[in-house]
Amino acid sequence: MKRSHIIAIIIVAAAIGIxxxxxxxxxxxxxxxxxxxxxxxxxxxxxxxxxxxxxxxxGHIIGLENxxxxxxxxxxxxDDNHQEQKVFYNEPMPPDxxxxxxxxxxxxxxxxxxxxxxxxxxxxxxxxxxxxxxx
Amino acid sequence: MHFLIGNLGHLFxxxxxxxxxxxxxxxxxxxxxxxxxxxxxxxxxxxxxxxxHSISVLGIIASLFVIIYRHYxxxxxxxxxxxxxxxxxxxxxxxxxxxxxxxxxxxxWQAVLGVILIxxxxxxxxxxxxxxxxxxxFLASMILGVVIPAINIKIGSSPFxxxxxxxxxxxxxxxxxxxxxxxxxxxxxxxxxxxxxxxxTLFLGFALTLPPFAFCIAGLWQKKYSEWxxxxxxxxxxxxxxxxxxxxxxxxxxxxxxxxxxYWNWDPVENAVYVPWLILIASIHVMMxxxxxxxxxxxxIILAISVFILILYSTFLTRSGILxxxxxxxxxxxxxxxxxxxxxxxxxxxxxxLCISRWKEIPSSEKEVSVYSREFWVFLGATALxxxxxxxxxxxxxxxxxxxxxxxxxxxxxxxxxxxxEFYSKFQLWFGVAVALISGTGQFFWWKKMDKGKxxxxxxxxxxxxxxxxxxxxxxxxVYSPVYLVLTLAGVYLIVSNVKVLLSVTKVNPNLSGGAxxxxxxxxxxxxxxxxxGYSNVVSLNNSGMIVNKEMGTDFNRDNxxxxxxxxxxxAGYDIEYRSENLELRNKxxxxxxxxxxxxxxxxxxxxxxxxxxxxxxxxSARDTxxxxxxxxxxxxxxxxxxxxxxxxxxxxxINPAMGGFLASPDIKKNFDRDxxxxxxxxxxxxEEPNWxxxxxxxxxxxxxxxxxxxxxxxxxxxxxxxxxxxxxxxEDVAVKAxxxxxxxxxxxYAEPVFLIRNKNEVGRIPAEINDxxxxxxxxxxxxxxxxxxxxxxxxxxxxVVIKALEKPFINVLWLGTCVLMVGFGxxxxxxxxxxxx
Lengths: 135, 838
Fold this sequence. Notes:
By secondary structure, chain A is an alpha+beta fold. Chain A contains three helices and seven strands, in the order αβαββββββα.
């Protein structure tokens, strides 16, 4: 076998390795039920859950708890299956958190509590919400 | 309403689009013309068309700039990207805040490059310029803004669209000629000097990937399979330098204005330009060895094409809206995704077809590559770079896979890796090591014929030197992590071996030393990244061991720190103290405390309550009226080390509902060996009414000391006043003002509550509030018999802010490395341009 063939094989092997690790490290979008099942099965890789904040009938956000030192908070997220889950986040509340239409939490269950490692907010974009100031 | 300028601009857009198509057609005709006379005629037509196109592009830019600069808010572009109070230099940044403007910028650079190529590359003119003209036509179509009537398809999004056509606000039904008084303003995060120069640099880098691609296509087309490399190489080098610089400027901007605590976040938008840059660097290396190896020739062709296609792919990713949730800063979708996909596919398919049809004819050799040849090492390096890019490209494209699966009726719930930084770093780090070792060693093969014995001799000195320097660095900087040890050693070795090569090459011919200089820069960049990112130290780390949440029962490391005003907290060797809220001065450099000014009816003008002193310099006297920027609040954070002031930082917050609510930017104190960095992660809301404690009443005489919420206070005087808030009181009304001095932590404050009797028996009390101390004092009653006064005091929670502070050691090594890398690129480029001319 020629040396260039060996190199080619190594390159292909490396590329395949990269694809496999990418697939392995990729996270998934799931709902809370699936996340709970994954956690029960001993799978601790962080997952993405998309949902919105729990609101009462008049549209007020409920279930929000700020810690005394303001450095962490918890909230109730309703996933696409309308399942509610209390989520803890160990960072101060992002100031535009309450305005967000959709919240993506990245994290997982720890001792039956959902702990978010990262929160992505989808806020109404400036183009949709734009209103003219007519004065 | 200024219709003329917009119509003129739109006319220029259409002209530039048509001219680029005409240009491509004319060059095509000239290319296939049999006789020289006809050829010459077509070439002249084509050149005229390209010049006309270029002038039209300038016309578009001028029209758009007039609209922004003259504040024609009847135009959507001016309204949504600019405002009356926007400082002049940022008018330039609002030009490319919108997608249309950035397409325009890209077109502009390619028009410039096209004109240069027409004037310098007569031998390659027709085929190269056909590629150029087609690319320009695609770009012009993105801002065309024309609806094809029969099939009702809109092509492109015009920057000259009127506000009333862009928005369906009811006001336009009432008054179609309505013009807003002020614009929306530029996103505060983009109001930064780097945003003035980063986009032009980046888009020049984008544009510079086109000449190598165009030469490559022209070479395949004309069957000049190796000749295309000589004219393409200097452009590739220039592109490598400019694109690299553009990426780093973007990183530096992110470091200064976004508050994620670093300069690189592995965001899809960043990855989308990082990958083509890596492949471009690989292609430059391979192109330099084409003379000796036919394999290198084929690889060069593949890589030169890949770089341009990857640029198109990155454009598609960032502008089509496909990244959706996964990126924080992709453009909003303008509905151009179909057009962008067509742009990408057209050049991809065309290039692949051309390659396949010519592949067999490209010379190839069956000669085995020796391990001791420079070709072998260049290949190894290029392979490492390509795999490095591939590793980033695969996960970045996850949203694309989901879309494709959905397109075929499937469902995919694949999400990007949860912790991007950790995920990418763990791979890229090892690629960095590989690249460092290969390019450190490969340099010796570049300049000399090598065999086993010689190689050992060459390597001995640099290896020994590297080990010594490595030992010094790790003992001084206390590097213990095995991965970082390996990367440090590889980086040091890369620098040392290239210094050796540099010294020997400079003796022969200094013009040839660009490569060695560039590689030294890469080594410095690697070490700079390692220390600034790997050893970034959270100063505000809260390891008090407090259980954060009872339900959780787990300990967290907490990176954020709650600071009450004027109460220092000790963290990581620093005393950190929150001192005040500030506003930025408009006409002088500096900040003014919000407590030291009174507002006027104009939000941009304020009156000084006392002398305004910033950093020991008196900027304004009491009662002066001056201008400020009201949008941003700057939180003064003092950081002291061993009692000495280490930094006073002013991290910024802008509350701007129109721009997505809350924008935080850090402030950085740049020191020689480390940066100190802080940003605000939460702050109290001034809109909510605070919870005041129950009123405490004290009876005091003039000159008597007493306590308000543990602060020492003294009632200095009581004075009758006959004016209140600028209004003169009636003769029978009585108003008295108390003057109370309160000793704060750093300074004394005066509170002046007012007691008022109007119309004989209506009692009014106007309390005074001291923001810094969180107290409120009211003059409740006057007891003339005992000469005493009743004061009512309330306290509230003091002003607070939550911050995160970081130390970034040796980050300057990274910036130094960048500069060295650019110098190296410059030297190599000058040499190749000279070579091409000779």
